[in-house]
Structure formats: structure tokens, C-alpha cells
Amino acid sequence: MTARIIDGKLVAERLRAGLAARIATLPFRPGLRVVRVGDDPASGIYVRNKDRAAAAAGFDSATLHLPATTTEAELLAVIARLNADPAVDGILVQLPLPPQIRAEAAIDAVDPAKDVDGFHPLNAGRLASGQPGLMPCTPKGVMHLLREAGASLRGARALVLGRSQIVGRPMAQLLLGADCTVTIAHSRTRDLAAECRRAEIFVAAVGRPEMVRGDWVAEGAIVIDVGINRTAAGKLVGDVAFAEAAARAAAITPVPGGVGPMTIACLLENTLEAALARRQG
Ligand SMILES: NC(=O)C1=CN([C@@H]2O[C@H](COP(=O)(O)OP(=O)(O)OC[C@H]3O[C@@H](n4cnc5c(N)ncnc54)[C@H](OP(=O)(O)O)[C@@H]3O)[C@@H](O)[C@H]2O)C=CC1
Ligand SMILES: Nc1nc(=O)c2c([nH]1)NC[C@@H]1CN(c3ccc(C(=O)N[C@@H](CCC(=O)O)C(=O)O)cc3)C=[N+]21
């Protein structure tokens, strides 16, 4: 089998065009503020792409770039100001943060109604309880791509490789909500390759370049590669060995041009959703 390539860039463009059309009818511009502390290079790509996409879709978007020496108290003060600002609908605190700042403290400080990352424990709890709320952008983007690929999810065996707070866990919750039979694999999983081979829907979010080999992939599986890893040569590669996996999968996402652009489109979708909920009750 040779896999169909799921074009995340194209799906993201369509999603953003739909958001732009809805925003054009509103009497206000949804406000997004990204807070970046220091100069983590991976965050640089994300912030640049996001700024461009937000402006083009009609958002009132800005990035607050704080020095790497910012204290936790200073960051919390910035977040408090954004929480109180009525023009701000969405707040994203870019991760990772420098070592003197606890990520948990920053995440907990964001008003859950403005938490467009969906990382606040209230929103994570809503997701785990099957209640509506702001959902993390990357897993939400993956669900869009699975629908786009025509995946039949009800009763399907899904495996999520990775159990991080920001990708793996919420991903598993969304798949469960879509009636998949979900396995979560991680660094302590026994017989990892055999577990992976059972999956009809395979989502890799492990952060290890090309760790998933072709023979870990079931014939006809749908493979979603969340990983974004930069090689020594400066090239971006996913968590999946693409050519090997594509020889067995029914459909697969590339890196770049797969999940990454969907994360940004879903961030904008969440910002519009937060704005409508806040301003129109
Ligand atoms: N496309 C996008 O928009 C985004 C992409 N990413 C990318 O996704 C990837 C994952 O990110 P994130 O979830 O934040 O990463 P984390 O490092 O937080 O989590 C990695 C997970 O993978 C597991 N893991 C690590 N090594 C192994 C191994 N050898 N075998 C099995 N499991 C392993 C860890 O297990 P354990 O819990 O046991 O330690 C952990 O649960 C990265 O490449 C990141 O750059 C992230 C966010 C957005
Ligand atoms: N609070 C917070 N929320 C996040 O969602 C968050 C974060 N912090 N920290 C960093 C990670 C990483 N991340 C990316 C999103 C999109 C691309 C992206 O657009 N990638 C494109 C382009 C890559 C390129 O051209 O270099 C692609 O994969 O095609 C990359 C990386 C969001 N993250």
C-alpha cells in the first residue's frame, strides 16, 4: 500500500479562511496575546507563523516578548493584566519557560475563559469529564485531520504514543470522546512495537526523530505524526520514519506541512470561540 498524504497545510488554510469570513461579520476583532519569555528557538518558528496567520485572518494579535531573566512574579503580573483587559480574548504563554519560572504557575494563572491553549486544569478537567470547554490546539488539529482523512473512528483501535499534558493525554481524551478504543503508550510501555502494530489510528507524539519504524505500522493504518524535531543539518523531521511508514499506511501526515499548521489554525479557532463566549455570553 502507498499512503495518501494528508495535507495539513491545505486543511489549515481552509480552516483559517472560514474563520476570516466569520470574523469579517463581527462588530469587533477577537484579541489574542502570546507571551514569550526568552528565546527558545523552537518557539520562534511557532510565534512567527502564528503572528502571520492571526493578522491575515483579522485577529487583533500581538506577541509580548519578555527577557529570559523575567521572574515568575513578573510573568504572573503580565498575565493578570491580560486577564483583566477586556480587549483580550485569548492568552497563550509560550512553552518552554526559563528554569526560574514554574510552567504550572503560569498555566494556572491564565483565566480559564481566555485559555486558548486549553492547558488550564479546569479546561483539562472538562475535557476529561466530557464537558465542553477550550481544547488543546494540537490534539484538536489532529481530530480535524482524522475527519479530513475519512477515518472511521467509532470502535477503532487508536494508539497515542506519548502521554504529555499538552499533547498525548488530551489526544487520548479526544479519541475516547470519538468512541475509539484508546491505548496510551509511553517510555515504560512493554513490547512497544507490537502495541503500535495493533493500531488502526496511530498518533505519534514522542519527540524522538523518526523513532517509529515502518514495521511498527499496521497495513492500512492512519498515521498522524505530531513530532517536530530539528536535525543537526537544520531539517525538520517527525517522530515517524516517513517513507517506511508510508509504504504500509493508508494515510499519513508529513512533517512539515502536517499537524504543525493545524495547531496554529486551531489556536485561532479557539480564540474566536473564546471571544464569542465572552462577548456574546
Ligand atoms: N505539531 C505541533 O503543533 C506540536 C508538536 N510538538 C512536538 O511533539 C513531540 C512531543 O511533544 P511533547 O508531548 O511536548 O513531548 P514530551 O517530551 O513532553 O513527551 C514525550 C512523551 O513521549 C514519551 N517517550 C519519550 N521517549 C520514549 C520512548 N523511547 N519510548 C516510548 N515513549 C517515549 C514520554 O514518556 P514518559 O511520559 O514515560 O516520559 C512522554 O510521554 C515533540 O516532537 C514536539 O516538538 C509539540 C507540541 C505541538
Ligand atoms: N503554549 C504553547 N502552546 C503550543 O501550542 C506550543 C508551545 N507553547 N510551544 C512550542 C510548541 C510547538 N508548536 C508548534 C506549532 C506549529 C508549528 C508549525 O507551524 N510548524 C510548521 C512549519 C515549520 C517550519 O516551516 O519550520 C509545520 O510543521 O509545517 C511548529 C511548532 C506549538 N507549541
State mean pLDDT (0 to 100 scale).
Answer: 97
| Rg from Cα | 19 Å
How much helical structure, as a percent, in the residues? Answer: 40-55%
Count of DSSP strands: 11
CATH topology of the largest domain, anyone? Rossmann fold
Strand order of the largest sheet: 1-11-8-7-5-6
Binding site for NADP(+): 162-164, 228
Organism: Siccirubricoccus soli
Function: Catalyzes the oxidation of 5,10-methylenetetrahydrofolate to 5,10-methenyltetrahydrofolate and then the hydrolysis of 5,10-methenyltetrahydrofolate to 10-formyltetrahydrofolate.
Domain Tetrahydrofolate dehydrogenase/cyclohydrolase NAD(P)-binding: 136-276
Plain-language structure description:
The chain is of the alpha/beta class. It folds into 2 domains: 29-112, Leucine Dehydrogenase, chain A, domain 1 (Rossmann fold); 136-260, NAD(P)-binding Rossmann-like Domain (Rossmann fold). Helix content is 41%, strand content 16%. The protein is built from 10 helices and 11 strands. The protein has helices at 8-23, 41-56, 72-84, 103-109, 121-128, 137-148, 168-177, 192-197, 242-246, 259-280, and strands spanning 4-5, 31-37, 60-66, 90-93, 157-161, 181-185, 201-204, 222-225, 229-230, 236-237, 251-252. Strands 1-11-8-7-5-6 form a 6-stranded parallel β-sheet. The chain has a 3-stranded parallel β-sheet with strand order 3-2-4, sandwiched between helices. A two-stranded antiparallel sheet has the order 9-10. Strand 9 and strand 10 (236-237) form a beta hairpin. Helix 1 runs parallel beside helix 10 (259-280). The longest helix has 22 residues, at 259-280. The chain is globular, with a radius of gyration of 19 Å. It starts with a strand and ends with a helix. 46% of the residues are buried. The model has no long low-confidence stretch (mean pLDDT 97).
